[in-house]
Design brief:
Elements: E1 2-6, H1 13-23, E2 27-29, H2 33-40, H3 55-72, E3 75-79, H4 85-97, E4 102-108, H5 111-121, H6 126-131, H7 133-146, E5 148-151, H8 157-168
Parallel strand pairs: 1-3, 1-4, 2-3, 4-5
Protein name: AAA family ATPase
InterPro entries: P-loop_NTPase
Length: 172
């Protein structure tokens, strides 16, 4: 099984993923950005602005997740923003074809709360993360159809993790 945590930057994906991994002994944190980092070391890939735009990233995420689950079993917790519907369709179709059950959640809060979290989260990277809020809002219509929306506005990450684990049937 994969528990995929989607949503924009500042929604609490990484923190919630860590809490899920603590809550579920059979869960493993899978950072798909590392697949993008690996691809970024390959010379002559086109400059597209985001590793998700490289088709090999999407295919390697599916293949890596499949191989990991075949090797170690359990649950992969993936905190990864995917705001392009075509990319999510490629990933989710590939995972379904591999026979992997995917529980897709979008961690959501209002724009003001997101902006506050982003500005107060880290000393750098605010502008880049804030610029993606509009992309997230534009993706919300298809995300609402493709995932379960989880409001994180007034909830602690441990509570969000417990609710997701319960919903996914991962607590047994």
């Amino acid at each position: 099984m994969i528990i995929w945590l989607n949503g924009t930057f500042g929604a609490g994906k990484t923190t919630t993923a860590g809490k899920l991994a603590e809550l579920l002994p059979q869960a493993r944190f899978f950072d798909t950005e590392q697949v993008g980092g690996m691809l970024a070391t390959v010379p002559d890939l086109p400059e597209l602005g985001d590793f998700q735009h490289w088709p090999p990233w999407r295919h390697l995420v599916v293949e890596t997740a499949s191989q990991l689950l075949d090797y170690v079993g359990g649950i992969l917790v993936v905190p990864q923003t995917v705001l392009v519907k075509q990319y999510w369709d490629e990933i989710s179709t590939g995972l379904a074809e591999a026979g992997i059950e995917v529980h897709h959640y979008v961690l959501h809060t209002d724009r003001d709360t997101l902006a506050h979290r982003i500005v107060n989260d880290r000393p750098t990277g605010h502008d880049w993360r804030l610029r993606h809020l509009t992309d997230y809002e534009e993706a919300l219509p298809w995300l609402r159809d493709a995932a379960q929306i989880v409001d994180t506005t007034h909830r602690q990450p441990k509570d969000v993790a417990k609710a997701i684990a319960d919903d996914a049937g991962a607590l047994g």
